[in-house]
Amino acid sequence: MGDMFRSEKMALCQLFIQPEAAYASIAELGEKGCVQFRDLNEEVSAFQRKYVNEVRRCDDMERRLRYVESEMKKDEVKLPVLRPEEEPIAPNPREIVDLEAQLEKTDNELREMSANGASLDANFRHMQELKYVLENTEGFFSDQEVINLDVNRKLDPEDPANLPGAAQRGQLAFVAGVIKLERFFSFERMLWRISRGNIFLRRADIDGLVADEETGRPVLKTVFVAFFQGEQLKQRIKKVCTGYHAAVYPCPSSHAERKEMIKDVNVRLEDLKLVLSQSADHRSRVLNSASKHLPRWSIMVRKMKAIYHILNFFNPDVTGKCLIGEGWVPTNDISTVQDALARASKISESSIPAFMNVIETNEMPPTYTRTNKFTNGFQNLVDSYGMASYREVNPALYACITFPFLFAVMFGDLGHGLILLLFASWLIIKEKQLSSIKEEIFNIFFGGRYIIFLMGIFSIYTGFIYNDVFSKSMNIFGSAWHMNYTRDVVEDENLKYITLRPNDTVYKTYPFGMDPIWQLADNKIIFLNTFKMKLSIIVGVIHMIFGVSMSVVNFAYYKKYASIFLEFLPQVLFLLLLFGYMVFMMFFKWVVYNDTVEGPLSPACAPSILILFINMILQGSQDTPEPCKEFMFDGQKSIQQVFVVVAIICIPWMLLGKPLYIMIKRKTNGAPPPKPQSGGGEGHGEDDEMGEIFIHQAIHTIEYVLSTVSHTASYLRLWALSLAHAQLSEVLWNMVFSMGFKYDSYIGGILIYVFFGAWALLTVGILVLIEGLSAFLHTLRLHWVEFMSKFYEGAGYAFEPFAFKTILDVSEDD
């Protein structure tokens, strides 16, 4: 599990590396992933740093890689998936030139093929549309008509038929083309308007879908022919065609010429098909060849760019013969860093080996908690609240147990817990295969598979305690109650219910959990309400006391011994003397009051814990009938008064103790009062002004006193959700599954399967998923607010080492 109790010790190290060994050294450190480098050139622009040209080269290679990858996606070429052990190391600087040349060659070849392919595709579409025009306009013309419809024909001015008057009377011109079917009707109206109805328009729809030259998507198109008179109208029609993106094609009016032209177009189409096929084959070969190397190239370029980016953090020394860098390193990994530097110097054949010095600093180091796949999920829950301060007590260590336990208190059902356990077990067993899935929602469940596994185990445990399996009880050990009534009394029709008194009918203690006879009792909900309500308060107070106690560990580590007496002691006394005492009264009531005695200690005389606690705070009293007593034992009133007085004293103790101690300490040491900070500080320490210290302590005291009451009440959610979960489970059983048992014939056997399917679906969907998510969120709140607020500061920042693995993972997510 690593050092989970606290974050690891960190050291600020200074690295001295020769320029010729710098690239190899950073590459080795990137593979190890244990140094968080600091930028020593923050004031220098990114364009003025030493390795800016190398970073630009990497950006250019990344751009080429993205283009090649996009072309592969267009052609649906699958990229091979590299296993972790197959990932290449960062390339040597000498290999970069070869890699760059290879990428440039592949990129240029693909771009040239794409440009040529686009031109060929456009020509092919135009030839196809011309063929459609020639074929579909066949019915618009007749060989027998002696009318000159050839728009391209030159007229003989000496021919009497071609005189201006005759042309006005008999000659028609036409324009033929192709337009999208969805635009044709608007196109037709526009032509009618500009010609004032002097255009005769015919159309013939093209069978099937035709590729659109603008989007490349298949669309419906139609062939049109517009007949008109006059050169001016012809120019208008062409302008309208341009506006509507209609393609105009030459079309002779003579049948023989059209036939000859169709033959020519078919020949050209066959040639284009051959060329397109050969181009596609060549493109496929190039892409398939590149796809074999693209994952490796991509990883190599990313690593190379990351190395030069980190090298820009370094500063050259005065002589320019050495690069100086700084970074945070876990003390346990210092030897690893030294070995990596020595190995890099050997690889680069540097004359002077790189070395590292640990330097002293007053800066707060980053927080680094070493985790594994089991503890990582719990650590992420804690880090979501706030990154722990350096070497602060880590709540994730205790959350590994308390989190699934508090969840199970609200989710206590053996059957539902078994479903969670089976699901988490499947995720754990198949984790190698499932780790490759990148779907966001699934990754949330997969990342918390061990949390779900423990939640399932603890839910099975609390299910045994509650004796609840899909709202039914198990009679494993035999009920501890026995019937002391005769058969005649039990079978009496006038008797609505019978009462079983523990003194007469209980002959043993049920060994584990809840006695199954409570499943049949009319006061089942009342009994379980009382039991779970008290149980939630007991668990909550113990949880909060544990949280307050953890602050002692922090105070002792940071050597703030005065805070143990000025903060921890009044806080724990206030909590114990009020709510710890209430928990004691619950246990005392359970032990002392029973059905075996008469008089003041009989169950009828048992006082209400809530009323006793309210009277204790308000110093009130209540009248009790004889022979009952107001208090549970002699001297209880005096003890309660002392507890309340001491608890009230704890409030000014918390409020004034620490500020007065700091004031006296400053006067004793003769230290001058601190100057106010010009910027936002990182929390309130002993170096602030006294006014700020008093204000901060007042806020802290008010928050603690009020939150002690509200947080205790907040733990009642354990009781509320547990009751709601059990009742909803019972409703689903009675209203859905049990309906199938009401039919005796063979139809009943069929209906059982139907109702079971509905019940199983609702159980998994509502009780396991929705109720489980609700219980998870409530458990998270209890840890973040009620538990961690007692000792956890969370004012640190995360340790983010330079690691190739992290860089590659982030790149894949993007």
Indicate the low-confidence ranges by residue numbers.
143-170, 674-683
Specify the number of helices.
25
Structural class: alpha+beta
Roughly what is the average pLDDT, rounded to an integer? Answer: 86
For the terminal residues, how far apart are their CA atoms? 31 Å
Share in helix: 55-70%
The number of domains is 4
Q: Tell me, what's the shape?
A: extended
- CA radius of gyration is 42 Å
Strand content: 5-15%
How would a textbook summarize the main sheet?
A: 5 strands, antiparallel
Assembly type: single chain
Number of beta-strand segments: 11
Report on this model:
The protein has helices at residues 19-32, 52-74, 93-136, 164-170, 181-195, 231-243, 255-291, 294-311, 334-348, 376-385, 396-410, 414-429, 431-434, 440-447, 449-466, 487-490, 502-505, 524-557, 561-592, 609-618, 636-669, 690-714, 717-735, 746-787, 804-813, and strands at 10-17, 36-38, 173-180, 200-205, 210-211, 218-219, 221-228, 247-249, 315-316, 323-330, 355-359. The longest helix is centred in the first third of the chain and has 44 residues, at 93-136. The strands form three sheets. Strands 1, 2, 9, 10 and 11 form a five-stranded antiparallel β-sheet that branches. Strands 4-7-3-8 form a four-stranded antiparallel β-sheet, sandwiched between helices. By secondary structure, the protein is an alpha+beta fold. It starts with 9 loop residues before the first strand and ends with a helix. The chain has four domains: 2-109 and 291-359, no CATH class; 116-150 and 172-278, Alpha-Beta Plaits, CATH 3.30.70; 374-476 and 512-668 and 687-790, no CATH class; 477-511, no CATH class. 58% of the residues lie in helices and 7% in strands. The protein is extended and about 125 Å long. Mean pLDDT is 86; it is low at 143-170 and 674-683. One of its GO terms (cellular component) is plasma membrane. The chain crosses the membrane at residues 405-429, 441-466, 537-557, 564-588, 600-618, 639-656, 746-770. Keywords: Hydrogen ion transport, Ion transport, Membrane, Transmembrane, Transmembrane helix, Transport.
